[in-house]
Amino acid sequence: IAKGVLTEEEGALLQKGRTGEKEAAEKKKASSVSAKYKDGLSFESGDGSFKAQINGRVHADYRYFDYNENKNNPAAVAGNAIANAGVPDTFDIRRARLGFKAAFKDYYEVEVVSDLATGDTGKSKLDVGFLNIAWWKPVQFRFGKFKMPMNLEELTSSNNTDFMERSFVNQLAPAKEVGAMVHGTPFTGITYALAVSNGVKDGGVEAEHREDGKDVYGRLTTNFAEIMGNKDMILHAGASFSKGDSPEGTVGVSGSTEAKGATFFKAPVVANSLGDVSNIDRSRLGLEGILAYGPFKMQSEWIRMSNEFKTPTKNYDLDTENWYAEAAWTMTGESYSDAYKNGIFGGLKPKNDFDPTTFKGGLWELGVRYSEFDASDYNAVGVGNGVG
Fold first, then answer.
1. Which residues contact 314 (CB under 8 A, 6 or more apart)?
2. In DSSP terms, which residues pair with 192 in a beta bridge?
3. Which end of the chain is more exposed for a tag (fewer CB within 10 A), N or C?
4. In whole angstroms, what separates CA 242 from the centre of its chain?
5. pTM reported for the whole predicted model
6. What is the pLDDT of residues 92-102, one digit of tens each?
7. What DSSP element (H or E) covers 31?
8. Closest CA to 248 of 209, 207, 305
């Protein structure tokens, strides 16, 4: 225009055309979806308003049991009442899951996971399926089938637990149930969650012979190190509870080895053919603690499950108290605080990927755990004795 090659009108039209092309390119980029691989196959829109990920896992086991030619096999003893006490050596697909996660506009999160390890049922099932709404980060809402807010081990993915199987504490904790939850992080280092569910393990519908048919759960955690601004340390304390009831019949839970093999304690079943057994009130209380600095960690949990009911002649209050204590060390130097967020552990990431040709790199962890299953209250009081 300055040189007189174009008139001002022609220049304005050309500039408008270039601006239109730029806007069209930006709109196309915003609406396009790119794919990449990072901890699973992930997708993201150009403007970042949509993110999705496909992931999964397969955990395979082989279990061997030394029964010393049946001399130490409880199932071989006539009249033994412990179910499945003697099980054969076996290969097992412990878990086989395929999942999908998606996030929309920073407010909505969806996760759907299918459990393909069919076991004895011969059918796959929905492992997780929920919608999370986070219009305000300190107060979020979740609906569907998800992990109830109790037991640090259960809330940690099976891909990220320190040991192959969870401890005895996990056998008293709820798992994935259908319900609704409000949760969030209202202040730095503090998390809370309050949920209501059907109270039936693995997302089942309300069981028969339940008085109110719903369980209430709550969990509160504090990381004092985060409050103090120390990013290399975890100083975590937490408490959780549940209150509800359970179907008439089985009282409490059976105890099995942590590898899900041999059952060493069979939960009693109270006959109720005449309808003279009251509803079983079930409550749980849990405490948890973590002390970690850099590559070193100590962690412990305790849960007590109480089952109260009565017959025309007796009252019962039967408790099971389980706990564990563990210590772990990442020999390759990874810091446990890098995997901790909002009161839950995620996955530790190795400083260097493992090279199978040189056998170098990778993340190596050394740990020891002691856990205890205490159902002695059933022996001292017993279903046949009662209290009060």
1. 385, 386, 387, 388
2. 184, 220
3. C
4. 16
5. 0.82
6. 888 899 999 99
7. helix 8-31
8. 209
